[in-house]
Amino acid sequence: MHRRRFLALALGVMVAGGCGDMGGPGAGWARRLTIVAPVVRGRRWDQAAHALAAILTGERMAGAVEVSGAGAQGMAALTAFAAAVGGPFAREGRVFLAGVPMLAGGETADADSVLAASTPLARLAGDWSVLAVSPNSLLRTFEDFVAALRRDPARLVVGGGAGGGSDHVLYGMIGKCLGVDVRLMEYAGYPTESEAVEALHEGRVAALLGSAGSLLPKIATGRLMPLAVSSGERIDGIDAPTLMEREVRLEYADWCGVLGPRAMSPDDRDGAVALCDRIDASPRWQAVCAANGWHRAYLSGDDFRRWLVTETRRTRAVLNELGLLSIPDTNCWGGCVRRH
Question: Has this prediction a pTM greater than 0.85?
Fold first, then answer.
């Protein structure tokens, strides 16, 4: 998996802490840390949250780490997180896992934005996407896909994750880049990637957008045929051009970012960002990313906040063109499904 920055959207992991030596209590050591991860257990970023917990304790960045499911989804989970009152971060830190569905949820639910409800700390990783079809598809190349989409965007149904999520947003961005009327495009969202793959093989969708890392084994065995990838450079093991190579000026990855409580003090915020710095530099975290095909895309502090402002605007624009801003069920993490 090539490692370089990515320019567009797409889920999230939370973490916090400070600086200091790796040997125990001090600046950069949290006595107790809670990672709030409102995602489906066992999914990609839930796995990342548990990997982070193991690294934080294993490398003595925190005394104890708990991964919490939040008991809610979307902006409801973030709102509850923001409203909770906690002590100093070094004593009892709390961080939150967020990404594209969270941004979309804030817009579709007409709720406070992610920026208003939290303190952005860092973007940790991302996951490139792949556009794939079944091996017996008549769409043999990305050019075939483009021709079919331009000819009849309402007839070409593309499947992927939950409506309003990263796959759906990427499809809207591709259509926009190609000059297609995005409101006419058909998308079918599924709770799990395996269900989306099943829909593809059963002919219920013509193509599939999904995680390049998780779909790589199916591509390697010939169960899926890739047409394009959303990375800036070609991905090892996937014989397909980038969107940029096909003159679609788009580079995109589903991202994993760390948020802190809304009312963090400057000292707590600086300590949390410093801990994120240490996580990104950890060989164990780098190994986790490599093993899962995740792209390390680190951005922290004010840089992350500025990027998040831009991403929020971009997400809102795409959701508006897709006609999703009035659809409340976009406010979910993997539990929504919009079938056609």
Answer: no
